[in-house]
Amino acid sequence: MVQYYTSFSRHTKVEWKDRTTGQAKSTVLDPPVVRLKNSNQPYTGPVGNGSDIETKLEVYTHNVPGGGKAKAARWLATRIDTLVPIDVGSGNVPAPEERALKGLDAGVPSGGW
């Protein structure tokens, strides 16, 4: 069995300049949906290494500077089938991740991130 490890993120706002008018424009994107299997509630906690997930991506084509086109993927949703928790403070999490995860269990601050 082949296993792949990767990470995905998603911008929640896209900004660009109109080619004709030069006017700044933007579009707000919905955040990706992340749920535990058999749950309708969003999951916002960390997902540990070894978790079994299924992720849905949207593949799209976009223009690149200098001409031409490229393909990219946008994260739409993830279902967590088996969650392996991350034990923050146990030493089994690399230092940069430890700093990033600190306080995550407290939830999103009232003013947002």
Write the layout of secondary structure elements.
Elements: E1 13-17, E2 24-28, E3 33-36, E4 52-63, E5 69-82, H1 95-101
Parallel strand pairs: 3-5
Antiparallel strand pairs: 1-2, 4-5
Can you walk through the features of this model?
The chain is mainly β and 113 residues long. The protein has one helix at residues 95-101, and strands at 13-17, 24-28, 33-36, 52-63, 69-82. The strands form 2 sheets. A 3-stranded mixed sheet has the order 3-5-4, with no helix packed on it. Strand 1 and strand 2 form a beta hairpin.
Feature tags:
113 residues; mainly beta; three-stranded mixed sheet; two-stranded antiparallel sheet
Task: Write a short abstract of this structure.
This protein has 113 residues and is mainly beta. Helices cover 6% and strands 35% of the residues. The radius of gyration is 18 Å and the shape is elongated.
What's the quaternary structure here?
A: single chain
Secondary structure tally: strands: 5
SSE-based structural type: mainly beta
**Succession of helices and strands:** EEEEEH
| Fraction of helical residues | under 10%
Helix segment tally: 1
Average of the residue pLDDT scores: 81
Radius of gyration: 18 Å
Which geometry do the CA atoms define?
A: elongated
Q: Give the termini separation.
A: 38 Å
Low-confidence stretches: none
